[in-house]
Amino acid sequence: MSSYLIVGAGVFGVSTAYHLIRKYPNANVTLVDRDAYDATSRVAASWDWNKVVRADYDDFVYCKLALEAQDIFVNDPLWAPYFKQTGVYWICRSDYAQNVVNHHRRLGRTDDIITLPISEARKLYGGIFEDADYSGAKEVLVNKGSGYALAGDALRAVTKEILHLGVKYVTAEVASLEIDAQNTCRGIRTVSGDVLRADHVLLCTGAYTPKLLELSAAQSGRSNLRSEDRILAAGITTGLAQLDEEEYKKYADMPVGFQGYLAEHGKPFIGSLPPTKDRELKWWGSKIFSNVREILPGRFVSAPPAGPDYQQWNVSRRMKQDIIEQKDLWFGSKSKHWNMTTHRICWDAFTSTSDFIISPHPAAKGLYLATCGSFHGFKFFPVIGKYVIDMLEGSLSPELEARWRWDRERPDALTAGNPEYPNAEMNDLLDTVAKL
Ligand SMILES: Cc1cc2nc3c(=O)[nH]c(=O)nc-3n(C[C@H](O)[C@H](O)[C@H](O)COP(=O)(O)OP(=O)(O)OC[C@H]3O[C@@H](n4cnc5c(N)ncnc54)[C@H](O)[C@@H]3O)c2cc1C
User: Fold this and answer.
1) What is the separation of C-alpha 100 from the centre of its chain, rounded to a whole number of angstroms?
2) Of 8, 117, 198, 266, which one has the fewest beta carbons inside 10 Å?
3) Helix/strand/coil for 329
4) What is the CA(173)–ligand 1 centre distance, in A?
5) What is the tens place of the pLDDT at every residue in 269-320?
6) Ramachandran region of residue 401, left (φ > 0), alpha (ψ -120 to 50) or beta?
7) What is the 373 CA–ligand 1 centroid distance (Å)?
């Protein structure tokens, strides 16, 4: 009977465990994560109030994959309670909208997806986006099929389901990989010294992946384990504002908003999420920041700050200011009095083209990776594990294998025209402390 050790219980790890246990009900599948799946605070990027679930991609491959995932969010009783089909309102500064519409047509989809001139679009939804920033915008894409998921709730529910199906869950921090003299990865060693073994070791460790590979390289003396410039760990600030009862009524049925920017604007697309059950609107910041530190003598790697919670609740004034600025891109002066309640730094793993890495690791037999959500991985939760199994079994389509493999062409983000790549360093966003 095959055994699988999956490190990381975010969407990549849980989706893989879900598809594995359904395909092979007798398989020995163990998930290991530093946080309990039902902890009140987790470091996973996948653990969040909400995440956008959209199939509005101008990249055909991800458009198709996102539609496959979205159909499950809509129709499958395990996922449907966590999906809110609010639609998206996308202010486009490029040919993005036309590309999305063409992809949907090519895929034979009859989704409710349209492009509108700005003057017409800003009257929609009771005019809530009237004061948004339309500078340089060409048109607005409205797709009523997209929406958002209650991310943390969905992650908890699906994890609970797979535990019921026989997956084991171990709460422990993994310190390094166990690699034998024949270059085969046999398992992992936890920080407390326990060794867990399996035939397949899959790293779904998100932002922590480069650091874990670096530590394992040092521990095993195999420098080719390192991710080098393939993966960059980076954080993004998110912030919430709570509306009062009266104001909430105006935004209760709002769609997800997107400000689409280009690589030359030096910032990613900026989203505005509909209110949570506590009447809180959410935005993310324009700064995607790496945190490069010397983690071993002479080895500089970007990683989330040390500590059990990645210090994710320690948000500087500059980071909070970034959120205010992005909020204003949507709601301008009418939002000046809104009370900002909660801030968090969310850490993810990035590649320069935003393509995932779903691949065997060439440095050790039995070692695999499924990671690099690159700021867009959540929406694939219902399906991504199916493709990870294809990778494990060598049956991934040549197109996907080429997109997701460990060694592939890696243009820099600007050349790749990718605005969703880290654009800052965390140190530069921390509060300066007065020297007295
Ligand atoms: C601010 C922000 C907003 C986003 N918005 C969206 C969105 O709207 N829509 C969308 O589709 N995507 C979005 N994303 C991207 C998406 O959240 C991520 O791509 C996706 O959740 C990554 O999932 P993962 O499983 O790779 O990693 P994670 O969810 O980060 O999971 C990794 C897990 O590995 C565990 N782990 C790591 N190292 C160890 C170790 N050494 N030992 C034990 N456990 C370990 C961690 O505890 C964690 O639980 C957003 C990301 C950010 C940062």
Assistant:
1) 21
2) 117
3) helix
4) 16
5) 999 999 999 999 999 999 999 999 999 999 999 999 998 899 999 999 999 9
6) alpha
7) 7
Are 279 and 243 spatial neighbours (Cβ–Cβ below 8 Å)?
A: yes
Atom nearest to 376 CA in ligand 1? 12
Is the entire prediction scored with pTM above 0.90?
yes
Give per-residue pLDDT as tens, 151-191.
Answer: 999 999 999 999 999 999 999 999 999 999 999 999 999 99
Q: Which long-range contacts (CB under 8 A, 24 or more apart) does 229-232 make?
A: 229/410, 230/351, 230/357, 230/406, 230/410, 231/349, 231/350, 231/351, 231/357, 231/371, 231/372, 232/290, 232/302, 232/349, 232/350, 232/351, 232/352, 232/421, 232/422
Give the C-alpha separation, 159 to 169, whole Å: 9
229's tokens: 């410039």
Are 199 and 2 within 8 A, CB to CB? yes
- Cα 68 to Cα 338: distance, rounded to the nearest angstrom: 37
The two tokens of residue 309 are 């919670």
Q: Which ligand 1 atom is the nearest neighbour of the CA of 173?
A: 42
Find the residues whose C-beta lies inside 6 A of ligand 1: 7-13, 32-35, 42-46, 51-52, 173-174, 204-208, 212, 236, 238, 284, 346, 348, 371, 373, 375-379
Sequence-ordered list of residues with C-beta below 8 angstroms from that of 228, at least 6 positions apart, any chain? none
